[in-house]
Write a structure and sequence with these properties.
- It is a single chain.
- Helix content is 32%, strand content 22%.
- By secondary structure, it is of the alpha/beta class.
- The strands form two sheets. An eight-stranded mixed sheet has the order 5-2-6-7-1-8-9-10, sandwiched between helices. A two-stranded antiparallel sheet has the order 3-4.
- Helix 1 packs across helix 2 and helix 4 runs parallel beside helix 5.
- It is globular, with a radius of gyration of 18 Å.
Length: 238
């Protein structure tokens, strides 16, 4: 469902796992032979790579480590080297260290995306997330967000690549209910520009699975390709 030449939006409540889900989509793109680019406004490049590597490992090649009295897991050296070879020259990360401090973040991200698409043929682009990629222009924030998303949409169409953009929901009482396209933060132009709008999370307690573990769902809030929407009980169980 990730079509080239399109912009996809992914929204969901904070802390419910939409960034992890997005990294899994990136991992699937790598397994499908695509070349990927990722911008993370929340994690430094080395930590994002570590996070993605654990997704790609599918739980294989892990060993325990103790961090401040807590048991965690890291990849074995052999698995790490195997993954490095697997996506060599096919996975690229935005690095803030390479960007001038005088340049606005949104300009840096767009320039970096264009460079990745033009020079190293990246076909799947992940931007996590819209707010962290934006500078705060005060009352012109909605205009700036619209301009930024328009640039991403133009890049997707011009170079026939798929751009996945993570967007937080509006700060409203969304906990425990199904999100809609109107809950996406920012101007309505953002969802208008997208081909597909997805929501990831736990919409209500009715989705708790066996043993009381909460099941995640992927809802399709907008689908310009076919028109089908999957929400509520029809949402995709994960």
């Amino acid at each position: 469902g990730m079509y080239m030449g399109t912009l996809m939006l992914l929204t969901g409540e904070r802390g419910n796992g939409k960034s992890t889900f997005a990294s899994q989509l990136l991992a699937r793109a790598l397994r499908a032979g695509e070349t990927v680019y990722a911008y993370s406004g929340e994690l430094p490049a080395w930590q994002f790579k570590r996070w993605l590597d654990r997704q790609l490992s599918s739980g294989n090649g892990l060993e325990q480590e103790n961090i401040n009295g807590r048991t965690d897991y890291k990849l074995t050296q052999g698995m790490q080297e195997q993954l490095n070879r697997f996506y060599k020259d096919r996975a690229y990360l935005y690095c803030a260290d390479d960007i001038s401090g005088d340049e606005p973040e949104s300009t840096s991200v767009i320039r970096s995306v264009e460079k990745a698409v033009q020079q190293v043929w990246c076909t799947v682009v992940l931007i996590d997330n819209l707010m962290s990629a934006m500078d705060d222009p005060g009352p012109d924030l909605n205009w700036a967000q619209t301009a930024f998303v328009k640039r991403l949409t133009a890049i997707a169409k011009l170079y026939n690549v798929c751009v996945l953009l993570l967007v937080h929901p509006r700060k409203s009482n969304v906990e425990g209910r199904q999100l809609t396209s109107d809950d996406v933060m920012g101007s309505g132009n953002i969802t208008n520009l997208a081909t597909t709008v997805l929501a990831y999370g736990m919409p209500s307690s009715m989705f708790y699975g066996e043993g009381g573990r909460p099941d995640r769902t992927v809802s399709v809030l907008k689908n310009r390709n076919y028109g089908d929407r999957l929400t509520g009980q029809d949402a995709i169980q994960t």
